[in-house]
Structures
1.
Amino acid sequence: MGSRTVPGDQSPEFTQALSDLRGARLRPEVRLTEVPAPQRIAPYAVALTAEVVGAADDEDELASGRFVLLHDPSIPDPWDGAWRAVTFARAELEPELANDPMLGAVGWSWLTDALASHHLGYTAEAGTVTRVVSESFAGLSDRPASVEMEVRASWTPVAGNVGAHLVAWSDLLCTIAGLPPLPEGVIALPGPRR
């Protein structure tokens, strides 16, 4: 896993964070790909995209997202710390959920529950939950309506292994994909990653 850093400047903390991310044990349905990290937001950054796919014989994408970890030792005021996780998760939902007034609150709780289930400390959390309803007309009227949920969130990890924050975010991604949670104490066996 590579990253973007200031040329000639190595951060032991960021190097450890990359190691933590590499060591994160995700469910086998989650496929990670490293992508170019954003420029000019922080001196150190790494970005990953993820997709949740069905069983081995069904490779349909159930959800997709992006996880960006930023590190700025100067501790920017809005972050309230030297680290910032910036995330995005999207999945198509059942059409009957389009009018559920609690959908946004439920989507946000899926994130906070995932962080809590891994006993992770965080601060300065912020985000949005968006539902997108698409209806087709005229020449496309034979297509059924579709509903997508998007969860955009950022938070500042407080101490510990930042790889665990990637695992918690991947749990959110699996939840919006409709996968059942793993039972308490069960660890998913690593699957092939792209």
2.
Amino acid sequence: MAEPTGIETLVEGEPEDYSPEEFPSEYTSESAPAGEGAARKPVTTGNSYGTGRRKEAIARVRIVPGTGKWTINGRSLESYFPNKVHQQLINEPFVVLGAEDAFDVIARIDGGGVTGQAGALRMGLSRALAILDAEVNRPPLKKAGFLTRDARATERKKYGLKKARKAPQYSKR
């Protein structure tokens, strides 16, 4: 006869401390509502600084406790980035932390195009917020992927090709 593994006792009989209240009466595919502790307010004790890079763009970002005023190269957010998609992309770190209108942002951006500058600004903001209070702010920003540098850049042109990958037109004769 085989040695008992312990599984037979669970299958054959119920444990002594079993109570039906511990198990749900029905199963659903819906998840439980999210707790209130998910989006905690960041600590607004002082200034913070972060540098973000994306493609050829570099953003030097300083955040200070305030009312949500944006200054990018001496201009407002709406005038520097008129595209609503870029404005939403830039504001995502504050939305994740639930800190909209809690900080004033002063940024200097150099190089690159509009999308690259928006990505660099988002990364600079995320780094500044992560430095401000690492234990509270860093995990949600890291989970959202805002602290990861997007290393994609323009591929260089190769010898014998018209562009990075475009070959000259083939001619049979």
